[in-house]
Amino acid sequence: MADEADLPAALTRFIDLFNRQEFWESHEVLESSWRASGSRFYHGLILLASAFVHVQRDNTHGIAAQLRKAERALAPYPPEYLGIDVVTLRRSARELRDRAQAEEAPRGHRASWASRVTYPRLVIDPSRVRGDEPELAGG
């Protein structure tokens, strides 16, 4: 069982910023750790944050494209990884992607994405960290 202090600082900072809907900033915080480690999981989280940047910019195509990539990156992971509920992440990404794909063709005036989306909250449950995740060794 891990404790939050044992978790990579970049990951905990990413989650803090993501949950404050500072999606661009959250993506930036995790990027150097992703590049250093090659973590596909981190890449999936970055793509998820990027999708919400597109939500804030009302870019329907960008939402769908980034969520598609996030789903692919997160697909190989178990139901929980680094204490994060991956099943719920993938499900909410798929549901929002389906909505965005259905709306990619212009249909007249509609409310902005930002006003129609419920933003997910990411939570780390330290008791569900296995301890052997490679990201724990690389920070």
Secondary-structure blueprint of this entry?
Layout: H1 9-19, H2 23-37, H3 40-56, H4 60-74, E1 80-81, E2 84-85, H5 86-102, H6 113-116, H7 134-138
Antiparallel strand pairs: 1-2
Helix content class: 55-70%
> Major sheet, described briefly?
2 strands, antiparallel
Question: What's the order of the H and E elements?
Answer: HHHHEEHHH
How many runs of DSSP E, i.e. beta strands? 2
Number of helices: 7
Strand order of the largest sheet: 1-2
Please state the CA-atom Rg, rounded to the nearest Å: 15 Å
Q: Structural class per helix/strand content?
A: mainly alpha
C-alpha geometry: globular
Amount of beta strand: under 5%
Please describe what this structure looks like.
The chain is mainly α. The protein has seven helices and two strands. It has helices at residues 9-19, 23-37, 40-56, 60-74, 86-102, 113-116, 134-138; strands at 80-81, 84-85. Helix 3 (40-56) packs antiparallel against helix 4 (60-74) and helix 4 runs antiparallel to helix 5. The mean pLDDT is 90.
Kindly summarize this structure in a few lines.
The protein has 139 residues and is mainly alpha-helical.
Please name the defining characteristics of this protein.
139 residues, mainly alpha, two-stranded antiparallel sheet, 7 helices, globular
